[in-house]
Write a structure and sequence with these properties.
The protein is an alpha+beta fold and about 675 residues long. Among the domains are: about 100 residues, Beta-Lactamase, CATH 3.30.450.20; about 90 residues, Signal transduction histidine kinase, dimerisation/phosphotransfer (DHp) domain (Helix Hairpins, Orthogonal Bundle), CATH 1.10.287.130; about 160 residues, 2-Layer Sandwich (Heat Shock Protein 90), CATH 3.30.565. Strands 1, 2, 3, 4, 5 and 6 form a 6-stranded antiparallel beta sheet that branches. A hairpin with a 5-residue loop joins strand 21 and strand 22. Bound molecules: adenosine-5'-diphosphate. The site of adenosine-5'-diphosphate (ADP) has 19 residues, from helix 14 and helix 16. The site of adenosine-5'-diphosphate has 19 residues, from helix 14 and helix 16.
Amino acid sequence: MNTAPVTRRWFLWGWLVLLVFLMLGTLIWLAGRYEVSQVQAQVERDAADGVSDIRAAFQRNVQTLQSLLSEARGPAVWAQEAHEVLRQHREWVRLEWRDDELRLMASADSPFRQPVFARFGRDNALPEVNAACALAKRQSGPGYSHSIYVSSGDGLGLEIMEVCLPWVTDGELSGFLVASYALPEVLSNLVGPHLTRSQQVSFTEPDGTRLAIHGQARRSKRVFTAQQLLDLPGYTLVLRVDSWRAAPDFFPNVLTALVTALAIALATVLYLLARDMRRRQRVEHDLADALAFRKAMEDSLVTGLRARDLNGQITYVNPAFCEMVGFQPQELLGHGIPAPYWPPEMFAEYGQRQALRLAGNAPPREGIESVFMRKSGERFPVLIFEAPLINAQGQQTGWMSAMLDVSEQRRVEELSRASQERLQATARLATVGEMASLLSHELNQPLAAISSYATGTLNLLSQHAADPSAQDLASSLGGAIQRIAQQAERAGQVIKSVHDFVRRREQAREAVKPHVLVGNVLPLVHLQARKLGIRVSLHCPQDLPAVVCDRTMVEQVLLNLARNAMQAMSEIPASLPTRRELTLTVKPAASNAASSWLVFEVADLGPGISQSVAAQLFTPFFTTKEEGMGLGLSLCRTVIEQHGGYLGHQANHPCGTVFSFTLPAQMA
Ligand code: ADP
């Protein structure tokens, strides 16, 4: 078996599986990345939200502070109002009213904590306050300072950022309002609580130094960080959001998990399919082998096979059957009743047989003989064995028939029958020969007696010839008796020749002129011709060479042929006198006058010889006449063949038959 295609198939399968897994891996990786980018975008959004929260709150706070500047009041009243404000704003740790020289006019500290600057000293923060207020004065709006770390002494401290608002009364700068933001409080109070619940928010310097943090750091592998600038007049802070997420799952979401599961299911199905296909291929291979074996077996059969369904339609034929009937399979398959190989004259009988079969009558097991017709129209005998066709479910679906062409067998039987008949005929012929020999022996004596009585009578007549009264009678009687003596002698010769012929003695051959031969039989022919009203015409030139033959036997042949011809014409109605003519012709064989053979022809205008009669014409004892013996022609042929000649017949023109035979001419 060739292993190359198998290796190739495995290679392809390997590639397919690898591709599926690569695709799966890429899918999971892409989904993970997408998930990460989603989280990162969310954190970025949170940072942006935080910054906008703070900015909005700062703006609101500026308005609140401005309300403290709105009208002229005494420092004590202001401080009280400032306290109220501080109670509502945890992000501020201290509010101060300073004059235009930045001298402190009044101040208030947050009630929520210890005064921040108690230990640190407010003066230490003055440079920031100055810078913020200088900016505020310049811009006529809020100015922010850099943040400073204010230690509370116990290791703790706060990042503080100052915001300064100019106090303008009647278009003149009359002082400043300074508010100190505690950055951690800004983160915890001004940033939306949803942002700080699960992530850490912090302020950092642009260089990354952490200033304030809100929210708990969690233990997690993956940190997503987003930074956003908080641009304030005079100071820029960075808001940083750190989000802790669990490391993304291997399957980041349901869709990916679903696709993965589907892909794994697909791979499993592929595997099962491949296994199933392999099994199927193996079974198909086995089946193909079995089919090939069956086909080889069917093709090698000489028995014709034919299957028919229950409606009589042909469903299967093997090559031997097709060859037998001479039809192509496609001409037979699907063909119903009558089948194309049924001889038309048998339609009725076969149709009945078929109906019986369909009615459930099983045919005999030993088979039935039937006659089928080849495509050429030729009929031939077949022996049919039929059996019901049972399918896998045990139901009968039709009939299966095996046919044997028995024409060859019949031909052999016919041949042996014919040779048997010939043997019997030969045996009868031998008996007839014996009888003829016996008869000739027995008849010889009476014939000799007739001959001697005739001779005696002639002698007596010659004695009375002198008597004038009896002279007339004596002369006419004398003629007749002479004829009797001649014929008796001839009969004796015939008998002798038959005797010789039967005994197979060497015949006495002599050279005889043909016109002498014909002349010898003419009187007898004329006798019968006159009786039947037949004209006899003779074509026999006297200058033809003599033939070497047993003259008596050849005369007998001529006589026999002439008698047959006349008997045939006797059937012609008397109303057709032109068809009663017997022609005897003798001529050299072929066109060559120097030929060494002569042809004798006996032609009649009778009904002619049919094909079936012609086939048996020379068979001993074959006759169509009631009183016929059927031996004449058979004997004639034997006689002529003993002379080396040939006896045959052909149709005469316009009707009738010409019998002809050849005899060797005497060479000059
Ligand atoms: P028989 O004359 O005793 O019947 P033959 O052997 O002479 O036997 O002839 C055999 C058959 O041949 C005849 O019965 C006749 O049917 C046929 N036959 C012979 N000669 C002729 C002929 N000239 N025309 C037609 N049929 C002939």
